[in-house]
Amino acid sequence: MGILDIKSVTLRFGGVVALDHVSFEVKEGEIFSLIGPNGAGKTSMLNCISGLYRPTSGSVLFKGEDITNLKPHKRAALGIARAFQNIELFPHLSVLDNLMLGRHVRMKTGVLAGGLYWGKAQKEEVEHRKKVEEVIDFLELEHVRNTPVGTLSYGLQKRVEVGRALALEPEILLLDEPMAGMNNEEKEDMARYIIDIHEEKKTTIILIEHDMGVIMDLSNHIAVLDFGKLIAYGTPKEIQNNPRVIEAYLGEEHVG
Prior knowledge:
The chain has helices at 42-50, 72-78, 95-101, 111-116, 118-138, 154-166, 184-200, 212-218, 236-240, 243-250, and strands at residues 4-13, 16-26, 31-35, 57-62, 65-66, 80-83, 172-176, 204-208, 221-226, 229-234. The longest helix has 21 residues, at 118-138. The protein folds into two domains: 26-54 and 69-79 and 170-256, 3-Layer(aba) Sandwich (Rossmann fold), CATH 3.40.50.300; 89-169, no CATH class. It is an alpha/beta fold and 256 residues long. The protein is built from ten helices and ten strands. The strands form two sheets. The protein has a six-stranded mixed beta sheet, sandwiched between helices. The chain has a four-stranded antiparallel beta sheet with strand order 2-1-4-5, with helices on one face. It comes from Paranoxybacillus vitaminiphilus. InterPro entries: AAA+_ATPase, ABC_AA/LPS_Transport, ABC_transporter-like_ATP-bd, BCA_ABC_TP_C, P-loop_NTPase. Residues 4-252 form the ABC transporter domain. Pfam families: ABC_tran, BCA_ABC_TP_C. One of its GO terms (cellular component) is plasma membrane.
């Protein structure tokens, strides 16, 4: 059993089948990638893992525990964090404030308790601030820490999006096209951060990305979806040489 087990997950929207009895395992400490054509069901799968969608049938297991019916904030508290393809930040707030908001599910002292027990709330605030400062340093965001996110370049905003998820100290980090829309230099930076998160923080990463060079370089295992069905699972080399994957997605130019 892996850190995450997807067991026969099916997701329907009326008559549309977004995911069709998909099963795979993600091992602890690996970089696991989901690839496939547009509309294949990749983001739908991340939504099922993070709790934004509830599967029509099947189950999602985290460290052996069935979390299929848990709400997103409960999964985040367990250690599953998500960065979105479309940036979901608060543009008028600073980088620091956006990352502090990412810590909210870790905060045990509520607003009312803070009014009654100021010392306890203040101490907790200091501890959370310390964790956020570590993320700012890790992602090299010190120079923009007090800058409103909406004024930053697209590449920096994507980095803050990843940072907000990282502020939760996740065991599993879900990254939905973290390099989409970036230039080559920004892609290289993001790839380096993903490697650092994986190696230094020992975080399991589930990655969706259309850049096949990045996928093949970073991944330990890859699952391929096509029209909601799992058509292949294996190492990068196995996926590159899978005739069904070549026909459905990769094309001959990606082989070898």
